[in-house]
Amino acid sequence: MLSKILQRLKHENFYWNMGFYALILAGSVHFLFIFLFIFLDIPQLVLLNIISVGIYLYCIFGIGIKTLDRKDDSLIGWLVYFELLGHGIIATIFLGLESGFQYYMYALVLIPFFVSTYSLRVRVLRILVAIVTILLLEVWGRNYVPILTLKTEILTSIHYMNLTLFLIIVSVISYLYTISGNAYRDMLFEKSNSDHLTGLYNRHYVSELFKTGLFRRKDDHNTFALLLIDADHFKRVNDVYGHRGGDEVLVKLAQLLKENIRRSAIVSRWGGEEFLIVLEEIEENELTEVAERLRSVVEKTPMREENELYVTVTLGGAVFSGGEAFEEVFARADKALYQGKQNGRNRVVIA
Ligand code: GH3
Ligand code: MG
Ligand code: MG
Question: How many structural domains compose the chain?
Fold first, then answer.
């Protein structure tokens, strides 16, 4: 159950889901309060918590589900805000500060940050109003004699129950907020570093990788090699099968490259019908073998199921020779590729 909920949270509507579960949590707490006050025989507070549960149910089902698509959570934000303020104040009027019902109001300082549609001005305003209200209630409540008097042990128990519940709620909500934030960040990372069509890493990812200097650690070691791969006469493929057909071929090509190379290799779409593969810890003769295998696999594999379409690729490779920058190795691979094209395509040239 919990793992399913967490799984769901990692899906598209991250912040929305987070808010949804927070509402369920808050509603459940008020639902328990109803029984607490039935037990303590305080009908006014039973009623207060029925109203609170109603507000949360309205948020969850009424607007919750309807606005899922519109992603407008500001109305829910306002309802929760006033529910928390109202409940804190009214419970304090009945039972005094000793009951600890004012603690839940402290969450009002956090909630404005969780509602994604608020502007900074609305956030600051709501936090200020919350702080002032909390302080006023604290000052006023000190010498206030509550409407109802409970036995000291009961009041103390309720106090610690509220404090504990409040702390748990704050940590659960912070946790939900963090994992939805992380999932969102992971999704953005994935999107910005992969190629939309083929799912391979994109040029940005590889460039960034080399900016970190990761592959230049050992100065006199062959720590990496590059293979630049360009589809031959790809314009013709587009001319015959249309751009969509060409796209399908690129997807198939990407898949072939990925399947026929070691797992540690970074296979990227460099642009158009060009791919770049980064291999670690590899010597020139092995690079030649790897490139030759790729060339041969592509040549032999039909690119479309319906008809016999075959394409070939030309590969230019270069092995890092120590102290070189990525751009220099790349330039050599590019030159080798150009040579391969000049020499008639469908071949491997290692610089
Ligand atoms: P060669 O490399 O063998 O010299 O010939 P080519 O026809 O492949 O050469 P060129 O680089 O001039 O043309 C590449 C073509 O690839 C042009 C362009 O229409 C096509 N292309 C580039 N990106 C895409 C894409 O994302 N989808 C499709 N379908 N075609 C693309
Ligand atoms: Mg090209
Ligand atoms: Mg080409």
Answer: 2
